[in-house]
Amino acid sequence: MKKIDHVGIAVKDLKNSNRLFASLLGVDVDKIHIEEIEEQKVVASFLKLGNTKVELIEPTSPDSPIAKFLEKKGEGTHHIAFEVVDIKAEMKRLKKEGFKLLSEEPRIGAGGKLICFIHPKTSNGVLVELVQPVKK
Ligand code: CO
C-alpha cells in the first residue's frame, strides 16, 4: 500500500460537520468537495489536507451502513483508507494473508475510484478501505 488516502468520519449532519472540520483544519469551507455515493447510501465531503484527505460521511437512508454505525457507536472515526496501485492484486494478497474482504470484487466509490473494504474483525477492529485512483 502506498499511503493513507483519507480518514473517514461518520457524522449526523454534514453541513455542520463541514464547518466544524474546516475550522479545525483551517481550510476554506467553500473548497470542500461534496459527493453523493448512491451505492453506499451516503453523502460524503472531502477536505483536502496536504496529500491526504478527511472524509465526512452522512447517511442518506436509515438502512445505510453509516446509519447503523451511528446508531451503534455514535459519531466518530469510521474507517482508514489506503491508496493502492492495483486493487485486485492487493485484494488477492490480503485474502491470502487471512483478511476478510467485504466484497469479492472492487466497488465504485467516490470520484469513480475502485474501492474495497476489509472487515474490522480481521484487522484489530479497524475498518480498512482500499482505494485505487482512477487512471488518467
Ligand atoms: Co472512505
**Count of the domains:** 1
The CATH topology annotation reads as: 2,3-Dihydroxybiphenyl 1,2-Dioxygenase, domain 1
Task: Give me the secondary-structure category.
Answer: alpha+beta
What is the makeup of the main sheet? 8 strands, mixed
CATH architecture: Roll
Secondary-structure element pattern, one letter each: EHEEEHEHEEE
What is the CATH level 1 assignment? Alpha Beta
Q: How is the largest sheet built, in terms of strand order?
A: 2-3-4-1-5-8-7-6
Percent in helix? 10-25%
From the structure provided, what is the oligomeric state, counting identical versus distinct chains?
single chain
Bound ions, cofactors and other small molecules, one mention each = cobalt (II) ion
Strand content: 35-45%
Number of strands: 8
Mean pLDDT across all residues, rounded?
96
Q: Note the gap between the termini.
A: 20 Å
The fourth-level CATH homologous superfamily is 2,3-Dihydroxybiphenyl 1,2-Dioxygenase, domain 1
The low-pLDDT segments are: none
Q: What is the count of helical runs?
A: 3
Description:
By secondary structure, the protein is of the alpha+beta class. It has one domain: 2,3-Dihydroxybiphenyl 1,2-Dioxygenase, domain 1, CATH 3.10.180. The chain contains 3 helices and 8 strands; from the N terminus they run βαβββαβαβββ. Strands 2-3-4-1-5-8-7-6 form an 8-stranded mixed sheet. Strand 3 and strand 4 form a beta hairpin. The protein starts with a strand and ends with a strand.
